[in-house]
Automatic annotation (TrEMBL):
Native organism taxonomy: Bacteria, Bacillati, Actinomycetota, Actinomycetes, Kitasatosporales
One GO process term, biological-process aspect: methylation
GO MF terms, alphabetically ordered: L-histidine N(alpha)-methyltransferase activity; protein methyltransferase activity
Gene that encodes it: egtD
Claim: Lipid biosynthesis is one of the keywords in the record: no
Protein name per UniProt: Histidine N-alpha-methyltransferase
Length: 320
């Protein structure tokens, strides 16, 4: 019999406190920034799903191609009985893994988006009658405590989401993931790869404007949760490639000089005309870099697979 359990690891007011702290800190500094996790309310999660279907947004298709081709090898190499997925979203591509892992007992999707977890979990237990699904509403950067489930444990972090962490944050995050693993457990990591600038920029600035709407959704979240008066039309969506850092940045550029009031923080924030608020970085990777970051976290990268066109990589790293 399948089971579906959702656990909130932090009380709801802790989430609001975290948003307040991020807005206060991020909008009072130069340049202004907000962390990308605040895109993902129910509407933001829906917009992200639309992004994954856009012609310009190749990462989802490329990663799915690798999963389809390599799921059996991943199953053989890990023998996983518990699959933990960080930033699981719709868990759509994960189905290829769930279908391929013969010994799987429990799936633990972890996400800040309660709506995404609930929808995905309900669909999955209908499709997998013997699977236990234990969803965690949690921030994967916040020191996770996982339920006690049978090993070996495979932690999956797909979609290139690791690229949203800055290099120092990534090192801290990977070290914390390592503490979730015992010898013989593994990390399956999806990383988007460095490539032609125009392909990268188009993936974050699609012709239909879905990514622009996703980017501006963070303003709607701050309006709703903190009573702010951002007008999303006052901002232009910007996606640019930083060749030195090898990351894409998404920004929101003020179309004119303006002031935004945020009553819950008793704050008024001035934007100069053309001033930009950074909402996301999305780092792109190379094989040697990923291998090195894994080693620094105490993990040994044993497999590196790319799609046919070499756009995206999945790597498997073992805890020894
Ligand atoms: C780029 S989407 C990827 C979704 C899915 N894994 C895929 O590959 O299509 C990032 C996902 O991570 C979640 N997320 C972002 N930051 C998070 C955080 N700090 N803690 C937990 N989940 C987070 C979002 O809600 C979203 O579902």
């Amino acid at each position: 019999m399948s089971t579906f359990l959702v656990t909130r690891t932090l009380p709801e007011d802790a989430t609001e406190a975290a948003l307040r702290a991020d807005v206060l800190h991020g909008l009072n500094r130069t340049p202004k920034t907000l962390p990308p996790k605040w895109f993902y309310d129910a509407h933001g999660s829906e917009l992200f799903e639309k992004i994954t279907e856009l012609p310009e947004y190749y990462p989802t298709r490329a990663e799915r191609e690798i999963l389809v081709a390599r799921a059996a090898e991943i199953a053989d190499a890990t023998g996983a009985r518990t699959l933990v997925e960080l930033g699981s979203g719709s868990s759509d591509k994960t189905r290829h893994l769930l279908d391929a892992l013969p010994a799987l007992h429990t799936y633990v999707p972890v996400d800040v988006s309660e709506s995404a977890l609930t929808q995905a979990g309900q669909a999955l237990i209908a499709e997998h009658p013997s699977l236990a699904v234990h969803a965690l509403i949690a921030d994967f950067t916040g020191g996770l405590t996982l339920p006690g489930t049978p090993g070996p444990r495979l932690v999956a972090f797909l979609g290139g989401t690791i690229g949203n962490l800055l290099p120092a944050e990534r090192a801290t995050f990977l070290a914390s993931v390592r503490t979730l693993l015992s010898p013989g457990d593994a990390l399956l990591l999806g990383t988007d790869l460095v490539k032609d600038e125009s392909v990268l920029v188009d993936a974050y600035d699609d012709a239909a404007g879905v990514t622009a709407a996703f980017n501006k959704n963070v303003l709607s979240v701050v309006n709703r949760e903190l009573g702010a008066d951002f007008d999303p039309d006052d901002f232009a969506h910007v996606a640019l490639w930083d060749a030195e850092e090898e990351w894409i940045e998404m920004r929101l550029r003020a179309r004119s000089r303006l002031t935004v009031k945020i009553p819950a923080l008793d704050l008024a924030v001035d934007f100069a005309a053309g001033e930009e608020l950074r909402t996301e970085v999305s780092a792109k990777f190379r094989e040697d870099g990923v291998r090195g970051e894994m080693a620094a976290a105490g993990l040994e990268m044993t497999h590196w697979w790319t799609d046919e066109e070499g756009r995206f990589a999945l790597s498997l790293s073992m805890a020894r």
